[in-house]
Write a structure and sequence with these properties.
mainly beta, globular
Length: about 120
Amino acid sequence: EAQLEESGGGSVQAGGSLRLSCTASGFTFDESIMGWYRQAPGNECELVSSISYLGDIYYADSVKGRFTISQNDAKNTVYLDMNSLNPEDTAVYYCAPTYLPPGGPCRKRAYNFSGQGTQVTVSS
């Protein structure tokens, strides 16, 4: 089982910031596109941002200008810096490779990836 462990979540007030980290073990980012996903209760698993091994970056419209994804290959870690958080950002955040099928990143243990996500709660 490859490890993709998320950390850095927490509870903040609207307008606050958090930095999420995803540290990999038994898995490398070479030739992979890594994504940050989130799932709020009653909602689908949503791709928030992704970064390729070539540095190509994607952001969902809802987070453009507020979130920044980055990658440290030496530490085998992907980060998500989240600023200007609002209550709509409340969800469990997961990191996973984007080749998993729809919904897969938010239940990645079914695909032999460890990691239970990290909860982000934003209060108004």
